[in-house]
Specification:
By secondary structure, this protein is α+β, with helices and mostly antiparallel strands. 35% of the residues lie in helices and 23% in strands.
Length: 154
């Protein structure tokens, strides 16, 4: 990103794009969870699973107002002291959750949407693989690479 005002690349103060990415089935069990600091794995599992209540709440509110779900992006599900949790739901009711570090204030809503589109496309590619059995945990090198690119340190 080139910033004309500074005459160079825009700098972000300590940024990781995402600290946790999860894919959850419509039955609410995880197909895939990846997080950057491996030491906090249990904390991120808890964060992802607690976000499912908010996802269900938002989906039920949308279901009462319209007959179909056109807006897949749910936006900010809830902020914590350390993280911001965002959600996205596919038409098949598969839920995608991305957790961003709260210290990273440079993220815009359109960047989060772009991350979810990228994640949804990678998930679709996995589902189209004839060797993947639906419902099994996702174990794809290509999918891992997409997630790793979303979690790179800037």
């Amino acid at each position: 990103m080139f910033n004309v005002a500074t005459g160079g690349r825009r700098r972000r103060a300590f940024c990781t794009m995402a600290v946790c990415v999860a894919v959850i089935t419509k039955e609410n069990y995880p197909l895939y969870i990846s997080n950057v600091p491996a030491a906090n794995e249990l904390k991120f599992h808890y964060t992802v699973h607690t976000s499912l209540d908010v996802v269900e709440e938002k989906l039920s509110a949308v279901g009462k107002t319209t007959s179909d779900l056109r807006e897949l992006y749910l936006g900010l599900l809830y902020p914590t002291e350390d993280y911001k949790v965002y959600g996205y739901v596919a038409n098949t009711k598969v839920k995608f959750v991305i957790v961003i570090d709260s210290s990273n204030t440079s993220f815009r809503d359109n960047e989060i949407r772009s991350m979810f589109r990228k994640l949804h496309t990678a998930y679709t590619d996995v589902m189209c693989n004839p060797f993947y059995t639906p419902g099994d945990p996702i174990q794809s090198k290509t999918f891992d690479d997409v997630i790793s690119s979303m979690m790179q340190v800037c």
